[in-house]
């Protein structure tokens, strides 16, 4: 039985990934510094609470493992990553460097790194009608925040470890992954969860606040589709960064209206033009992943947001 390590398994994507691997009968070791507790246990064979900024902890985490899915990071939504720079870069670069070196020293067969669409240049994301970002668009580099720069740097570090030490690496650039059992309050939540929470907490009739004018656009990929993409990539022979996301572009206003419709409430939108908004438009080009892995998202936004809103509404009402 293959022994799999999932770091960041107390978080959103990591917990869903660990759960799927565990259900697929892998021997799953999960590691994080804190545990959200949203996912019902057990979803692992072994659980370790470790600070992966410490090299010795990374050695302990990877010891005896065959494959590593490295999702641990200091991160959050736009309100967090626009305010916090040094902490994000310091913590994540330490974790990534230590995990790569520990994986090399412990003869890990294959190493997965979770990158982000935040690595893409701002000059390609100034229009809300974004045609889709191709993997090759990453350079010349110009991410819009420190989080994006950190992810791009680690992509290059993975490439260097692969070239210099023959460590097999796989890199996914996630585009706005959403779904139930993730952070929905506290300041680190991303826009889908934040909007669901605002609607769930609002009276009927009521009003919710939208950051910006609501015409900034994104594409969103449901967690189950994301996990399928990760597993296909890890099993493949493709060793370059690959987009995992959706190519269905939608504005924040449209997402808010969709969630309001799901809630059945009579809610109006008001706008805070001074709030963080990120890039104007971001979309995923899926040409390469369709060609390489035969993968594209299967779960419509309407179904995905129905599942997500209902779960967050349940949490709020507790």
Please, could you describe this protein's structure?
By secondary structure, the protein is of the alpha/beta class. The chain has helices at residues 12-23, 55-62, 78-81, 86-105, 146-165, 191-201, 223-235, 252-263, 287-293, 301-317; strands spanning 3-7, 27-32, 46-49, 67-70, 110-116, 169-174, 177-178, 206-211, 217-219, 221-222, 242-244, 249-251, 267-272. Helix 5 links the parallel strand 5 and strand 6 (169-174). The chain is globular. The mean pLDDT is 95.
Give the tags:
318 residues; alpha/beta; Rossmann fold; UDP-galactose 4-epimerase, domain 1; 2 domains; 7-stranded parallel beta sheet; two-stranded parallel ribbon; NAD-dependent epimerase/dehydratase family protein; NAD; NAD(P)-bd_dom_sf
């Amino acid at each position: 039985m293959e022994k799999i390590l999932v770091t960041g398994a107390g978080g959103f994507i990591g917990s869903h990934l660990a759960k799927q691997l565990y259900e697929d009968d892998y021997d799953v070791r999960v590691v994080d510094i804190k545990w959200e507790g949203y996912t019902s246990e057990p979803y692992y064979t072994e659980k370790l609470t470790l600070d992966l900024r410490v090299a010795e902890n990374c050695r302990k985490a990877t010891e005896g493992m065959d494959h590593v899915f490295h999702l641990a990071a200091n991160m959050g939504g736009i309100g967090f990553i626009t305010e916090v720079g040094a902490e994000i870069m310091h913590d994540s670069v330490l974790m990534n460097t230590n995990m790569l070196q520990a994986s090399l020293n412990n003869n890990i067969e294959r190493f997965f790194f979770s990158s982000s669409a935040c690595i893409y240049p701002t000059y390609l994301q100034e229009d809300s009608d974004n045609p889709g970002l191709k993997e090759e668009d990453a350079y010349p580099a110009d991410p819009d925040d420190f989080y994006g720069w950190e992810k791009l740097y680690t992509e290059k570090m993975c490439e260097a470890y692969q070239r210099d030490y023959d460590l097999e690496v796989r890199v996914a650039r996630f585009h706005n992954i959403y779904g139930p059992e993730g952070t929905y309050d506290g300041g680190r939540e991303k826009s889908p969860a934040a909007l669901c929470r605002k609607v769930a907490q609002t009276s009927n009739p009521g009003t919710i606040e939208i950051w910006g004018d609501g015409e900034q656009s994104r594409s969103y990929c449901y967690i189950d589709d994301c996990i399928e993409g990760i597993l296909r990539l890890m099993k493949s022979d493709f060793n370059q960064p690959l987009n995992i996301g959706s190519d269905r572009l939608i504005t924040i206003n449209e997402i808010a209206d969709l969630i309001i419709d799901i809630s059945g409430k009579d809610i109006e939108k008001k706008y805070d033009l001074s709030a963080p908004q990120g890039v104007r438009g971001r979309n995923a080009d899926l040409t390469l992943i369709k060609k390489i892995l035969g993968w594209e998202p299967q779960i419509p936004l309407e179904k995905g947001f129905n599942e997500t809103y209902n779960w967050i509404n349940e949490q709020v009402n507790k």
